[in-house]
């Protein structure tokens, strides 16, 4: 198979206005596959908030090529494309299959609704709804994420299925499980500009080289370009338990899997701030400056709404901070954020911090970040009093008598 003639078998559910086929399998050219992926991705880049809903990254192409994905062809303002509609939940590593099974039963089939770009054409929308109803009538449960208090036509497709189908909070009951996105501008004292500045790790290395900051391999706070070996194993042990506990009742997996975590630890482009006690790492804080490391963040949103920060590479994504449960109570988290803030201040530019929380961690993470930045004495952060965006998780099922 040549690279210029990629073919994939995709269930071909032909929509009104698209040439009929006698087969339920369509041979998809590389160009059509690429156009379909770009159409979907561009739609979400243009319409999503800071953190995306739907598919992102390699999941888009994987879903279109997957014979278990419910797809259909449509020809609309976006072109002649294959549109992914429902993806089997087990294909998506970010979702909590255990919570779905505990809530709705282990015998259920779960599909994630992809928020596809849907034509305003009534025939197209009716056809897509017929596919949704077919899966629900078979007993499947469809789940989806949505921005709170926002009317979106892709969501309306699910909300207009009729009285035989009901939408509830994912997980059941009255509890709303959410993902809350925070964005906070950081003003460095004595700095008025937002400008191109060196990466954080380069600033730290320069400070160590010139004796401005000491780096003790046994005790205290420092930066690490790469963490591997026994340190990496220990960090996974420290990281896994609290994130497992935090995410046990949440629809989305709240941390990295083991391989993803190992990749972060070994990537020198990811800023890692650690605290050691008697040679052992007690605390890890991670910052990312490259959106490609976090494809669920919508860089087009930041490019449009925070252009000055985006254009000068002054946006820091904060995936999380974790401490050894046996060493808590020593303010190590505050110390690592304090060092990060002091080093960032030496870049001589103001910057922006963004991070996500569950409805549970929202009760303390924004406070920790605000306090640590303020206590550094070199900067102040604003805007973390409330999230700029809230994503809710819902489930659709057929009404039973």
Provide structural commentary:
The structure is a single chain. This protein has twelve helices and 15 strands. It has 401 residues and is α+β, with helices and mostly antiparallel strands. The strands form two sheets. Strands 3, 4, 5, 6, 7, 8, 9, 10, 11, 12, 13, 14 and 15 form a 13-stranded mixed sheet that branches. Strands 1-2 form a two-stranded antiparallel sheet. A hairpin with a 2-residue loop joins strand 10 (271-277) and strand 11 (280-288). 39% of the residues are buried. Residues 1-24 have low confidence and may be disordered.
How would you summarize what this structure contains?
The chain has 12 helices and 15 strands.
Features:
single chain; 401 residues; alpha+beta; 13-stranded mixed β-sheet; two-stranded antiparallel sheet; 12 helices; 15 strands; globular; disordered N terminus
């Amino acid at each position: 198979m040549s690279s210029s003639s990629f073919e994939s078998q995709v269930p071909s559910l032909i929509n009104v206005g698209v040439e009929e086929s006698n087969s339920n399998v369509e041979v998809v050219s590389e160009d059509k596959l690429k156009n379909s992926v770009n159409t979907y991705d561009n739609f979400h880049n243009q319409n999503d908030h800071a953190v995306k809903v739907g598919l992102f990254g390699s999941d888009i192409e994987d879903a279109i090529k997957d014979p278990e994905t419910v797809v259909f062809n449509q020809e609309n303002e976006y072109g002649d494309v294959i549109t992914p509609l429902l993806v089997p939940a087990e294909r998506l590593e970010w979702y909590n299959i255990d919570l779905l099974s505990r809530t709705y039963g282990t015998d259920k089939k779960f599909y994630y609704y992809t928020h596809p770009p849907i034509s305003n054409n009534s025939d197209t929308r009716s056809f897509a709804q017929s596919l949704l109803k077919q899966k629900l009538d078979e007993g499947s449960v469809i789940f989806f994420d949505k921005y709170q208090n926002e009317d979106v036509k892709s969501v309306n497709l699910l909300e207009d299925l009729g009285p035989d189908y009901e939408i509830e909070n994912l997980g059941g009951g009255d509890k709303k499980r959410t993902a809350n996105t925070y964005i906070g501008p950081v003003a460095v004292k004595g700095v008025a500009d937002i400008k191109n500045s060196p990466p954080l790790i380069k600033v730290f290395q320069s400070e160590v080289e010139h004796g401005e900051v000491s780096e003790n391999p046994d005790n205290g706070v420092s930066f690490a370009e790469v963490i591997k070996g026994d340190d990496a194993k220990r960090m996974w042990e420290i990281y896994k338990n609290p994130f497992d506990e935090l995410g046990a009742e949440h629809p989305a997996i709240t941390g990295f899997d083991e391989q993803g975590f190992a990749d972060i630890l070994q990537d020198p482009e990811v800023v890692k701030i650690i605290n050691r006690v008697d040679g052992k790492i007690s605390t890890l804080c991670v910052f990312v400056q490259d959106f490609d490391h976090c494809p669920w963040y919508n860089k087009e949103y930041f490019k449009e709404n925070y252009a000055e920060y985006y254009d000068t590479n002054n946006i820091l994504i904060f995936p999380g901070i974790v401490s050894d449960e046996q060493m808590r109570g020593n303010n190590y988290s505050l110390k690592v954020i304090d060092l990060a803030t002091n080093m960032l201040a030496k870049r001589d530019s103001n910057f922006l911090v963004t991070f996500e929380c569950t409805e549970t961690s929202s009760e303390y993470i924004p406070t920790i970040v605000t306090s640590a930045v303020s206590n550094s004495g070199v900067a102040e952060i604003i805007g973390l009093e409330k999230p700029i965006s809230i994503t809710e998780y819902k489930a659709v099922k057929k009404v039973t008598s």
